[in-house]
Fold this protein.
Amino acid sequence: MPRVYRVTGNPTAVANIANTELLTGVSTSSGKFQITRIEIGQLTTETPTGIVVALTRYTAVTGNSGGTAITPAPVDSADSAATSTWLLSNTTAMAGTATVLAYHMMQDVVGMQEIPLPDDGLQINPSQGFQIKFVTALGAATNMTFVVTIREL
């Protein structure tokens, strides 16, 4: 049976710079995972700003370093540790062959949710990467919160 994990950050300072990586995840050479839910919100501003968010899959991953490691928490406490690795706010951006899986227009005051249907989940295959990036600047440095739920397959 697949194991389910949550990758969380609360609160996380994000600079007011376009093309800022919020979070990246990389599967192992023999593992894969599916994104089943993404929630992003903020704690700083009351002035609405429209932000374009890109959800991107990478093959032939390079870069992806310098960020803060986040350990996915198992939803079932009896499950073993997740095999995928996650980094917050990389200083060396993820690179490789990119496929944008979705663009969202996020209103920072309201936040964003991506909840794919079971057969429409965002699948990351062995040795691939996943990135959540703010394509447009935030309007001001902001404390963001997020939860990404993954299912290791």
About this structure: The chain is about 0% helix and 60% strand. The mean pLDDT is 90. The CA atoms of residues 18 and 137 lie 4 Å apart. The longest strand covers residues 50-65.
